[in-house]
Amino acid sequence: MNIQRMKFVAILSIFFIFTAHIYTDQRTENIDCFILLDKSLSMVEEIDAVADYINNEIVGKILIPGDYIMVLQFFGHTEPLLVKDIGSEEIKTSIKNTIGNVLADGYYTDIGNALDVLKSTLDTHDSSGRRQYLLLITDGIQEAPPESIYYTGDEPNPDFSHVYMENAKVIKKQGWKIHILGIGTLSSAQEVADTLSGTFSTVTPVTSDTGETAVLPEDQLRESTKEFLGTIRVIDEPQLRISNMKGEGTLRIQLESDGYANTREIRISDVYLTVPSGRFRIGGPASAAIEPDDIQSLVLDIGVPAGIEDTLGEVEFLFTDNLVFTPSVMDISIIPPGFLARYGLLILLIILAFVILAVLVMVIRNLMANAGDKVSLDVFIGDTKEASLTVAEGTKLFINEGLGGIGVSIKKTGEVLGDLTCRLNQLILEPIKEDRFTGARISGNILEKTLKIKDRFGTFVSLKISRH
Description:
The chain is α+β, with helices and mostly antiparallel strands. It has seven helices and 28 strands. The longest helix is centred in the last third of the chain and has 32 residues, at 339-370.
């Protein structure tokens, strides 16, 4: 193994979602602290500085009497280093001595196996309701032995692109906070942070006073991780609501900032939805600024595949900048479009069909009215029936005066004195020569009424029209 190659120390501070301020002068409730410590040969140059950091910052400043600590050390395999209840300062001193004596002398670096052992330990550990904090310290160079299920061949695999990273989704989903402290190779530290949805910072080694070795400045270590207890957490179940049959909708999440002194901006690059039918990008980019110790709702516009029928899924958030919220992977209920959104177009088409049908009925009734049932009429001049007419509803008749005197016909002949329109049980008069009508109604329905009409000689003639 070439231990002279560029490497970093990745400190993955993996915290459950109920992380709070835990500095000694503020905390009264007890916690469980788990540490995974890489003791492979590739850590040989950094192990002393890392041990001092754990002893001074974690054991010395964070842990208080009543806390529980477990340290697992790993290289080609994983084994317990210590398990202690913090009962006194003497126990803290014992813990510091044990950690301070760790040597980076193990062959291989099986981070995948270490995470498996850690997960098994957490599955069986009784926390008694106490908060649990997990810290992983490694140079990030995955190089499993041939007997490991995470073996990737003879070459180290620093980019973590192997089976082991399936554990990343477990970490993301359980809402642990992850902070990576990188030494030397920023790109690798950032890659691990991106894979595990964590934050990262870097420390630059400086040359020792003798000029022979590079050392890690303790002040840079403290400064680079001073806020790894700060969290932005999802505090309610997210809601994914589909608004229409195109798959457009919204995703609502509620975020709480805890442990930060300043306003922080979350920048989401992508949102993915995994359902039995596949994995789909449904949103992003988006951003939100969150004040310290504040709660804020974030509503994202999303688009799922049209016609998706799944009601349960898993949503995953990816981030642009060095700030994330936890958990970044969550189970989610998918609320389908409402009745109107789902069937609105169909309802509109049905209404439109009814409107068209109503218009057609009106047109047909109009046509039937114009060419409706025949009406038989008898025309009386005085007491004499002068004519019998059979006409359709809506037909116009005319009161004319010709050479033969006053009469009624379906054509205009001679001088037209008035119009008659046949309606159901009515015969409507519209006088043209009003001065010629007298002695009766000279407009409106005249059926079965007697009209007095003055002829051109000044003689009044009686006109009556009756149904036959």
